[in-house]
Design brief:
Chains A, B: Keywords: Aminotransferase, Pyridoxal phosphate, Transferase. Two copies of one chain form a homodimer. Chain A is built from twelve helices and 14 strands. By secondary structure, chain A is α/β, with parallel strands linked by helices. The first copy, chain A, folds into two domains: 144 residues, Alpha-Beta Complex (Aspartate Aminotransferase, domain 1); 242 residues, Aspartate Aminotransferase, domain 2. At the A-B interface, helix 2, helix 4, helix 5, helix 8 and helix 9 of A face helix 2, helix 4, helix 5, helix 9 and helix 10 of B.
Chain lengths: 436, 436
């Protein structure tokens, strides 16, 4: 039997199992997925999903914009376009980023199919199997999935309420390099972190930049929530301070709508050229109609006024969640206090396991994402991510109340039977759009 | 100096050159790109581009469809969606494929960002570096780019006017396996081949299926042009005869419009599951708005009637090209006679080099794609791809006339100075959307 003829047994479900690429070993469906399909039933309060609440969008404006786009510019809007993205939209993206102190040229930008694809393309361009990517602990589940699909080694670095801990970052770089491994970049979400709900302080921004510059280490700055802060002006991006050492990822998914799948990368010139080639290989070009629809929306509408409305809506929900947590949660439960974005990171009392508890929570009609999803290494079992972006304040209050009752029950069980031994965790699990 | 600190010299243009992944060695910009930007000037007749001619689309129907989609279903159409693709659209895709004899279930389908992304995801799931992919000679430039980006070894198999030569396929499989290498799939475009302009005959379809079944080799059937045949009914797809051994790729780019970037894969269940995980890692989900827009168009419009109009329009252009070639080309020039699709494959008289000739052709205000772009191994220098999809019949006639004059001049030069020695070819070059 020759090399690529698999030994197919009748009892085997997957006839192709011997033929897949090695990278597919990192692609496994989440075991909690089935639970999420239950959690989407209306009687369950889902604090799990990361879907933005787009009910406030001006449908009449968007509807006219897409209609006119077809009628007036259909031959262009429905045709293939530039692999780098529409030049007009790239110009507008520069205006959007200026709000965070970024001075960029449209040539520096590569449009992507949501910023998820930006993470994919950057990793494709930089990472060989076995290369190290440094990420925060916890980190975005969708980015962990990409790093795993490209067979990277993920090294987590401690965070606290002010974002990543600079000394821990410095230490991690030194340790990985001392082991003779290549670090390709430090992936960070400085603003309103998903899932941690914290932001990198001003002081630490400087330190993180210094550390990475002196270590000659690229920063991959993922910033989907930067304009969704509840207090004061948007933070200056890391990219605003360093054009050569920072690759910046942006997205219209949270400031406008995710269904068009438009994000972008800003990268130094040579890297940007590679990204465009990678984009052409991946899709030929990002969706032209989506790009021009967003371009038209930005032109026709007070889009920043709309973002301000989103902020107020999310602020109200954040307030409802924090108030309910304070009122309902048992002692020894702690959580972060986000200044923007969508997420609170909650740590259970010692000895409780968020994943083991999830089926009971869903039975009690509340859902969340267990913390292990946000670690590549099985940590996080005592933690969970709670989203306040989608439900109404009343539903959030009700959901937190149900969750507190479940935690109290767990505490009683533990009191009666002793601490649970958490099962072995698989760490990262494929996210699915609902966990984005 | 530690492992990942590059030696950055001031004279080096790309500061990141030591940090890229090995796969980027296969990602290089085409040297003929600069010429194509000249070729896009209106005085040049471009027989190079593969952009469909969508001028005939009913803009009023599409305009109303997208407007109503926003007004009536905006909260869903602009939100994240399923990683596998919209269930309603997948159901409609089954109807589309039934025209080619395919019986599929919506669960078998994974929607992609154009069928380019389908090639990318299938390769991602199956191919490790060094794995062999068998392709036709010539083959689609965009697929060659994907195989190269995944560091596959590409083995070409001879074609003639009836498509791939079965004996050559059988021989290639045996030779590669005898060398101890793994073949992951046979990539084929059975209908109105890009760039060869030929179709696989009925008899050979059976033989190719038998050969691949007995060799236990997957077929990757890429079929963007299957409904654009000029004579009789659509051919039965290879997938129609074999559900387990064929992965089928389809696209709305040529039957509707490419700017929405919607294609699809039909794969056996286990493979489809991997593809969905790969899609979620790549983009979270394909563009929801695009999918629902196409779904609405298919419902509201006589889309198959529109495809028939496209066919007639392309037939008229094919006829114009073949007539002009017959009338103008010097002896010893040969070309294929496509029964559908967009392309004619032309072979120059012995000793002429299509790539070397291109700058002179562009100066004479006609452009084409040199044949080397469609080979991974530097072959094809005597050939070129001519597209008749976009220009008017009059422009096609004029373009062929200019091209014939350039070829005649080359023949005179050769007569005077002896045969040209073709320069070393780089083989595959990144396509760019304009070459798709």
């Amino acid at each position: 039997m020759s090399a690529d003829v698999p030994d197919v047994r009748q009892t085997r479900l997957d006839n192709y199992v011997d033929r897949y690429a090695a990278r597919t070993k990192g692609m496994t469906a989440s075991e909690i997925r089935a639970l999420f399909s239950v959690a989407s039933r209306p009687e369950v309060v889902s604090l799990a999903g990361g879907m933005p609440n787009i009910a406030g969008l001006p449908l009449d404006v968007v509807g006219s914009a897409v209609r006119d786009l077809v009628i007036d510019h259909g031959a262009v809007a429905m045709q293939y376009g530039s692999g780098q993205g529409d030049p007009g939209l790239r110009d507008q993206i520069c205006d959007v980023m200026r709000l965070e102190g970024i001075e960029a040229h449209p040539d520096d930008i590569c449009v992507t199919v949501g910023s998820q694809q930006a993470v994919d393309l950057v990793t494709r361009v930089f990472c060989d199997p076995g290369d190290v990517v440094i990420v925060e602990a916890p980190s975005y589940v969708g980015a962990l999935g990409v790093f795993r699909a490209y067979q990277c080694e993920v090294v987590h670095v401690e965070m606290d309420d002010n974002g990543v801990v600079p000394e821990a970052l410095e230490q991690a770089i030194a340790t990985v390099r001392a082991a003779g491994k290549k670090i390709k970049f430090f992936y960070t979400i400085p603003n309103f972190h998903n899932p941690a709900g914290v932001s990198l302080s001003d002081e630490r921004r400087k330190r993180v930049l210094e550390i990475c510059q002196s270590a000659n280490l690229l920063i991959l700055e993922d910033n989907p929530y930067g304009l969704l802060g509840f207090d004061g002006e948007p933070q200056r991006a890391l990219r605003a301070e360093d054009r050569e050492g920072v690759i910046y990822l942006g997205s219209f998914s949270k400031t406008f709508a995710p269904g068009f799948r438009v994000g972008w990368v800003v990268a130094p010139h040579a890297v940007r050229e590679k990204l465009v080639l990678a984009q052409e290989s991946a899709t030929l070009c990002p969706p032209v109609f989506s790009q021009l629809a967003i371009s038209s929306y930005l032109t026709r509408h007070d889009w920043l006024g709309q973002v301000k409305q989103f902020r107020e809506m999310y602020r109200e929900r954040r307030d409802a969640m924090l108030a309910a947590l304070t009122e309902k949660m048992p002692a020894a439960t702690t959580w972060t206090k986000p200044g923007g974005g969508f997420y609170v990171w909650l740590t259970l009392p010692e000895g409780l396991d968020a994943k083991a508890m999830l089926p009971r929570a869903v039975t009690a009609r509340v859902a969340y994402v267990p913390g292990t999803a946000f670690f590549a290494d099985g940590f996080g079992s005592q933690c969970m991510r709670l989203s306040y972006c989608h439900p109404t304040p009343e539903r959030i209050t009700e959901g937190v109340s149900r969750l507190a009752a479940v935690i109290n029950e767990e505490l009683e069980l533990r009191h009666t039977f002793g601490p649970l031994r958490p099962g072995a965790s698989h760490g990262y699990e494929a996210p699915g759009p609902e966990l984005s």
